[in-house]
Amino acid sequence: MNTNDQIKKLGIAGSLVIFVGAGILMHLQTKFVIPWLSRITGMENIFFWFVIGGLGIFLPLILLGIFLLKKEEVLTAEKAFEAMAAEKSIAEAFAWFAAEDAVIKRGNDSIISGREGIRNYYNLANLTRAAVSWTPDRIDVSADGTMAWTYGKYVWKVIRYDGDTVVSRGIFHTVWKRQADGSWKYVWD
């Protein structure tokens, strides 16, 4: 099951859990919590306690919704990244989606740093005749929503000068950072 399917499944299951959970919490709050708070504080204003209790129920649900939206944003960035690599060039895509201080690890444990260094690496002659595709199998977002990480499978195809195509497959792992403008750029690939 790919990440898109997981998000759809989580969306349906999550909505059901949220709906049922909120209903149960509202019932318990109305039946037990609000009367108890009114008794111990001497405040009979049901509306006040209903609002306070509602915040306790809906604030976590709002935060959960924000968390799920962040995952969707990262998935959208992954798809746009892959599409740009196919439509423009691998070098353009890897440079465009790189944070200014991004780092990539490639063959022989070599580290390439910075957006321009990454662009130059992918503009090497043997890589300009390549194509890459990938699908994230998992997306996770930090609790504060500023970092995310994805991993999944990739297929790398290089057309050699003799016309033969060499295909390699593997697992990718990308670390994303939310930028000041709200976009997501990778810092590690």
Major sheet attributes: 6 strands, mixed
Straight-line N-to-C gap: 22 Å
Task: Using the alpha-carbon principal axes, give the shape.
Answer: elongated
Number of helices: 4
CATH fold description: Nuclear Transport Factor 2, Chain: A
The percentage of residues in β strands lies in 25-35%
Strand order, main sheet: write it out: 2-1-6-5-4-3
Helix content: 40-55%
Number of strands: 6
CATH class: Alpha Beta
Derived structural class: alpha+beta
> Low-confidence stretches at least 5 residues in length (pLDDT < 50)?
none
The SSE string, one letter per element, is HHHEEHEEEE
Q: Do you know the CATH architecture?
A: Roll
Radius of gyration: 24 Å
Tally of separate domains: 1
| Overall pLDDT level | 84
Structure description:
The chain has helices spanning 3-41, 46-87, 90-96, 115-122, and strands at residues 98-106, 110-113, 130-141, 147-159, 165-178, 184-188. By secondary structure, it is α+β, with helices and mostly antiparallel strands. The chain has one domain: Nuclear Transport Factor 2, Chain: A (Roll). It has a 6-stranded mixed β-sheet. Helix 1 packs antiparallel against helix 2 (46-87) and helix 2 packs antiparallel against helix 3. The radius of gyration is 24 Å and the shape is elongated. The protein starts with a helix and ends with a strand.
Topology:
Elements: H1 3-41, H2 46-87, H3 90-96, E1 98-106, E2 110-113, H4 115-122, E3 130-141, E4 147-159, E5 165-178, E6 184-188
Parallel strand pairs: 1-6
Antiparallel strand pairs: 1-2, 3-4, 4-5, 5-6
Provide a compact summary of the structure:
The protein is α+β, with helices and mostly antiparallel strands. Helix content is 51%, strand content 30%.
